[in-house]
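thought: fold this chain, then report.
action: predict
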Amino acid sequence: MKKTSKTTTSAFSPTKPVAPAPTPKPAAASKPAFSPSVKKAAAAAVAPAPVPKPIPAAKPVSTTIAANVNVGFGNSLFIRGEGAGLSWDKGVLLNCVSDDLWSIALTGASKTVVFKLLLNDTDWSLGEDYTAQPGGVVTVKPLFH
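observation:
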């Protein structure tokens, strides 16, 4: 007779259910390790910008105008013009320093001051308009009729 081979059964049996292979879990997101300098840089990136210090206001520039003229007792010398708060419509009284010297210190000039002197704020001095640079000192010798 013929020899028949024996069939061996393995641990795998078709009647037993097979558990599926476990699926790998995704790696947990880990926070990267930062050095202190990176942390400071990151903090600086979101920190509010520093508030700039206010710039102190510049001292007002004083422009001095003097006039060498004897206007006679009882008369006064006025100035009109543009710049440093002057107007061509109404004069500003100069200070009498001596018999023949009048002066005024004008503040706030940011550009050339153009002016004319008037006797008693009614009689204009002869000649062209005078000019003074901001912060400058000008001495003029006006003539009147």
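thought: worth noting. The mean pLDDT is 81.
final: tokens above.
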